[in-house]
Amino acid sequence: MTALLRYQLDLLVRSQRWLPPVILYAAYLGIGVQSGQPVLDSLGFTAGGLLPVAAWLVRICVTGEPDAARACAAAARGPARAHLAALLTALLAAAALGVVATSVVTLISAPADNGHQIRVPLLKAGAAGLPATLACALIGAAVGALTNRPVLRSTGRAVPAMLLGALLSVVLTGSPAQAAVSGLVTGSRTGRITVPLLPLAAALVLAAAAFATAARLSSRRSP
Amino acid sequence: MHCALRLSAVGRRYGIRGPWVLRGVDLAVAPGTLIRIEGANGTGKSTLLRLLARLDAPTEGRVTGRPRTAYVPERFPAALPFTPLGYLTHLGTVHGLSRATARRTAGTWLERFGAGGYADTPMARLSKGSSQKVAVAQSLLGEPELLVLDEAWTGLDAAARAELERAVAERTAAGGAVVFVDHDPARLAGTPDATYTVLDGGLKPRTDGGSSPAGPLTLIVARGPAGGALPPDAARTGATALETAPGGYRLTVPASHSDILLRALLTARPPWHVVRVTPPPDRTPAPDDLAPPPEPGSRP
Fold it and tell me: Shortest CA distance to B125 belongs to which of B73, B80, B74, B76?
């Protein structure tokens, strides 16, 4: 599995296909987050934006190899494991991006609530922002896993389904990502920090189920 | 019989209501055997090979056995952001080698297929044939227990085609199973342990084994024990021996397996003495070949 992960990670880095989503995410943060804004609000914004980026990274990783090259690697370790390696690579990349973004945003934001009345310690805010960001990365990766190869194979269906799935998981009540983000945004209004551990756990379970489903299907759908 | 892999009543179709590509296929792949799959275009040969490589799960029936498998697709696109050496090092580690071993073995295989010069050229700049050499090298890195070749010879130059035949011979001699599809009827002619035809979604063993066209044969003149039989390893290469004088033998062997036969003769106890090796007459002898010009009629 380590060898497959290293292979996929090298493939992702060298392909340079990660550039568009990362640049878009940086632009999104550049527009929406400014230094001196309330920390929890900015962290909520940072986490929410990572969800479609994670889905997009999954799409890049599972479609990165030509079919023939994928078959070569899959023969050695089994198609399910090869697919899982691609999904985990995307999740790792999204998580790493989220950790960097969360750290930067925490450092440049104001340690205060929306009304600048109540003090919100930066370190504690960051500790709440990190699980929220990871929950969004997990849900985004789950959406990506279920809306790309091998579940949906044609680009015409996969991309709209992925975008719709990502949008719904940010806004719909009941989604762990939405719960995590709204926890931060509400916290910014009230000045109370809630660490979204329950949404993170739920996101972990959902992502594991989505990854398992996609990996299981990888040998059942046509190439 | 111990099997590396067994298909039992296997069927495969794409989509829930798609037509059956294969149905009721039974196939046992024993270690050390060479199996040829034949059939017209679009009959499901590639699907069968994907099932054997466990890339596809069967829609019905069972596949048992998990040999270490390597697969060579028919066309290997070079659209990967690696150099051949970088890609093969990754694939070698995926096949279970350590990084250093993978890198060394990758270099060796690229050399063997005459692609050592491109080891550090970006794969996007390789020709079709050179990328196919990378695909073939990938499959041989990990000394797989099952090697699945889907028209792997397509696009290779003559030297690389012969090298791949020899590599297949080495693999089976080392106890690995090899299953291949190729459109050239002379490919590894005379050496498959079994030939199957994919027909109407089923698999039929070809029993007229003797009718497979003869490929290039190498003639070996050797001295061994008088009245003795070939060493067991040598007999498995498909060689035929004719005792011309007491202890003097003329051996004919499919050219792909001549190295295996020679190794078996030289390492037998007591070892045989190799007097002369004559390559197949239709092959241009390389300058360093020690063989005299083939005598007329030496090819049986």
Answer: B80
Structural domain span for residue A48: 2-217
Residue B86 shares a structural domain with residue B183: yes
Residue in chain B closest to A74 (alpha carbons) equals B55
Please name the residue that has the structure tokens 């001196």. Answer: A36
- Nearest chain A residue to B150 by CA: give it: A68
Q: Which amino acid is at A166?
A: A
d(CA A175, CA A199): 8
- B55 near A CB under 8 A: yes
CA A40/CA A126 separation, integer angstroms: 8
| A69–B contact, CB cutoff 8 A | yes
A149 contacts in B (CB within 8 Å)? none
Alpha carbons B250 and B241: distance in angstroms, whole number: 6
The values of phi and psi at residue B195, to 5°, are -125, 130
Total structural domains within chain A: 1
Compare CB distances from B69 to A69, A75, A221 and report the shortest one's residue: A75
Tell me, rounded to whole angstroms, the distance of Cα B128 from its chain centroid. 21
CA A82, B29, B150: angle at the middle one, nearest 5? Answer: 55
For A110-161, write each residue's pLDDT tens digit: 999 998 889 999 999 999 999 999 999 999 999 999 999 899 989 999 999 9
Q: What percent of chain B has pLDDT over 70?
A: 91
B291 three-class SS: coil
If one counts the domains in chain B, the total is: 2
B44: left (phi over 0), alpha (psi -120 to 50) or beta: left
Query: Using 50, 70 and 90 to split pLDDT, how confident is the model at B233?
Result: confident
CATH label of the domain that carries residue B112: 3.40.50.300
Backbone angles phi, psi at A203, to 5 degrees: -65, -40
Q: What CATH number is associated with residue B251?
A: 3.30.70
User: What rounded mean pLDDT belongs to chain B?
Assistant: 87
- Which residue do the tokens 């950790």 mark? A99
What is the DSSP code (8-state) at residue B59? Answer: S
Q: Please indicate if any CB of chain B lies within 8 Å of the CB of A153.
A: no
Verify that B174 and B271 share a domain, yes or no: no
Task: For the beta carbon of residue B77, count every other beta carbon within 10 angstroms.
Answer: 16
**A119 domain residue, yes or no:** yes
- Is residue A222 domain-resident? no
Note whether residue A42 is domain-resident: yes
Residue A107, burial from CB neighbour count under 10 angstroms (0-12, 13-18, 19+)? exposed
Asked if B91 lies within 8 A of A65 by C-beta distance, the reply is no
Answer whether residue B288 is part of any domain.
no
Q: Say if B150 falls within a structural domain.
A: yes
